[in-house]
Amino acid sequence: MMTADLAREIHAGNIAAGWWPPQRNRPEILMLVVSEIGEASEGYLGDLMDDKLPHWPMFDVELGDTAIRLYDVIGSDAIDHLPDLVALATQSHEELIDLNTYDVQGDLMMIVRHVCRAMEHHRKGRTPEYALALWRSLAAVHTVAIAHGVNLDAVIREKRAFNLIRADHQPEARQAVGGKAY
Q1: DSSP code for 53
Q2: 30 pLDDT tier (thresholds 50, 70, 90)
Q3: Which run of H or E residues covers position 72?
Q4: Which helix (H) or strand (E) holds 114?
Q5: What is the pLDDT of residues 110-149, one digit of tens each?
Q6: 73 Cα distance to chain centroid
């Protein structure tokens, strides 16, 4: 379920973990969202199980990672421009009503399209439109998850718990040569 509270919680946790330097690059963040969608596609096409949460399909976990990244940036940038989430979810659902459970790639590209809209609004300084596009991106992730039988809330909970203890997410690991920079 999409909530502003979850966005605030995820963003605060990522600040505490050191993932948010004073000047975080928004295009970089949005590209990371797209990279999670690409990994979801790889998981689906290869019928792979996740390597971090091996009891979940990779597709499910990467959709969860997509949502986590969107919640994070929403917690930073879009909370003050909170649209009516019920209307947003309804509008996004109506737009996606033709989702076909056999066209996962098309469904994933629809999420990318929303993220690209967010980027374009950010680039042009249209803050309210940027915020709305971020929420629509997240609504699209939730809608795709529902259409494809993904328990997104459970995946998000498990992945967030895992991320708290994973070695490559610790500040010292990120600062090491070859560590995750973002």
Answers
A1: S
A2: very high
A3: helix 58-77
A4: helix 104-123
A5: 899 999 999 999 999 998 889 888 988 998 899 899 889 9
A6: 9
**Six token digits for residue 71:** 């919640």
Nearest CA to 160 out of 152, 148, 150 is that of 152
Contact 175, 86 (CB under 8 A): no
C-beta of residue 34 within 8 angstroms of C-beta of residue 112? yes
- The token duo for 68 is 């986590």
Spatial separation of the C-alpha atoms in residues 65 and 120, rounded to whole Å: 22
Take residue 169 and report the two structure tokens written for it: 């997410």
Name the CA dihedral angle for 177, 179, 180, 182, rounded to a multiple of 10 degrees.
-40
Structure tokens at 98: 């033709």
In angstroms, rounded to a whole number, what is the distance separating the alpha carbons of residues 170 and 110?
33
Question: What is the value of pTM for the model shown?
Answer: 0.87
d(CA 59, CA 73): 21
Dig out the tokens for 53 from the structure.
Answer: 């949460």
